[in-house]
Amino acid sequence: MQGGFFRVVGRARVLELAAGFAPVAGAERVGLEECVGRVAAEDVRGPEALPLAARSSMDGFAVRAADTFGAAEAEPQYLECAGAVGVSGFPAFSLTPGRCARIPTGGCLPAGADAVVMVEHTGELVRGIAGTGGPAGTIEVRRAVAPGENVMERGEDLAEGALAVPAGRRLRVADAGLLAALGRESVLAAARPRVAVLSTGDELTPRGAPPEPGRVRDVNSLTVALLARRAGAEPVSFGIVRDDREALAETLDAAWRECDAVLLSGGSSVGARDLAVRALEGFADAEILVHGVSMSPGKPAILARRGDRPVLGLPGQVGAALVVMRVLGVPLLRHLGGEAGALEHGARPELRAVLARNAAARQGREEFVRVRLEARPGGLPLAHPLPGPSGLLRTLVAADGLAVIPAGDEGAYAGQEVDVLLL
User: Fold this and answer.
1) Is the pTM of this model over 0.85?
2) Per-residue pLDDT tens over the stretch 72-92
3) Which of 108, 158, 248, 291 could be disulfide-bonded to 46 (CB atoms 3.0-4.6 Å)?
């Protein structure tokens, strides 16, 4: 095993190394009611075209577009209504030149029709009864339409046999809706990675215990587990481990045997009580891939491998641990859960913003500045930096995201555009 103390690497290199871990094996079939947030483990293709026939996207009149050419408010065209289309079923009649049909949103276009005039651009002059059984009369058309206007063409949503949901996609509500439209009741979903969560430190006390001088409540076990769950993993708590190499190694071994990954907070800096690296070095099949990331906060972060499973070491400071989890841990867990492109997506910012005031940074480290976002009509949002030490929780509570200042910059100025990772 090769180790190294604070031979820092960039965030991109950490994510590149994380790609070396294979997603966890296994899949289960889940109902559509439970599929949102899960990762599809199968390609789903359309068994038929969606929609099956051309349908109107507006209330109005189905027409042959050529019959409306030249129509305007001052010079309307006049068409005879051949009948009315129901919202279900296919019309039994067709349109010949000079004729139209009343149609509701979602109704199938009769044969011969290729466009729909919105009802507000028409006027009904004469009422009567058509031979087809629907209402008839002369319809005044005050606006021309082009072929395909206000129409959902056959297969426009999905062509027959086309890929509806690819394997590796994290499913959203719209995906569930599309699957329902295709007649699916369930989908094969990738197994959720089981992730061990543990905190280290003699100063830690359970969060329900009364406060004592010199001790702090264990916050990381909760917040790290919640972020892991939001990333699609199943967190498994291994509690608090005291500052003892043998005890930490024993807990790490139990966590490794039970789970697909280990998230360890504390014990990653260089110091007499920082035991994570030394505990990992005790395993013959372990390797320290990274000890030190050129980011702030989060420089002491660790990425290790034991066998085929990752161990991510987070700082003990609550705020710093949350930033590292957001920047490195969440993409890693999404990748382990089978989400395609999770590591690449994790490295990309969600939006651009304009700094409301100067923000300092340490040159040589990628700085993640907590910011509150303020929407601006017609422009990029304003990002207000929130000052304070990296260990503070209140600045994270007030923040909407993390403004990213590149490692080569000493800071960013008011008015400068910055990338933002949302929290």
Assistant:
1) yes
2) 999 999 999 999 999 888 999
3) 158
Does 290 share its domain with 385?
no
3-class SS string, the chain: CCCCCCCCECHHHHHHHHCCCCCCCCEEEEEHHHCCCCEECCCEECCCCECCCCEECCCEEEECHHHHCCCCCCCCEEEEEEEECCCCCCCCCECCCCEEEEECCCCECCECCCEEEEHHHEEECCCEECCCCCEEEEEEECCCCCCCCCEECCCCCECCCCEEECCCCECCHHHHHHHHHCCCCEEEEECCCEEEEEEECCCEECCCCCCCCCCEECCHHHHHHHHHHHCCCEEEEEEEECCCHHHHHHHHHHHHHHCCEEEEECCCCCCCCCCHHHHHHCCCCEEEEEECECEECCCCCEEEEECCEEEEEECCCHHHHHHHHHHHHHHHHHHHCCCCCHHHHHHCCCEEEEECCCEECCCCCEEEEEEEEEEECCEEEEEEECCCCCCCCHHHHHCCEEEEECCCCCEECCCCEEEEEEC
Task: Examine the domain organization and report whether 248 and 279 are in the same domain.
Answer: yes
Mean pLDDT computed over 173-197: 97
**Half-sphere exposure at residue 86, Cβ-oriented, CA atoms within 13 angstroms:** 8
**Where is pLDDT greater, at 422 or 129?**
422
In a domain, 6, yes or no: no
Query: Cα 329 vs. chain centroid, distance in angstroms?
Result: 15
Nearest alpha-carbon partner for 195 in 276, 258, 264, 262: 262
Examine the domain organization and report whether 39 and 183 are in the same domain.
yes
| Number of Cβ atoms within 10 Å of the Cβ of 219 | 18
Of 103, 133, 152, the residue that ends a domain is 152
The string over 327-353, giving b where at least 16 C-beta atoms fall within 10 Å of a residue's C-beta and e elsewhere, is bbbbbbbbbbbbbbebbeebbeeeeeb
Give yes or no: residues 143 and 161 share one domain.
Answer: no
Per the domain annotation, does 45 fall within a domain? yes
Is the link from the previous residue into 51 a cis peptide, with omega within 30 of 0? yes
Domains contained in the chain, number: 4
Q: Please, are residues 400 and 423 in contact by the beta-carbon 8 Å criterion?
A: yes
Same domain for 211 and 269?
yes
Distance, in Å, from the CA atom of 13 to the CA atom of 188, rounded to the nearest integer, reads: 32
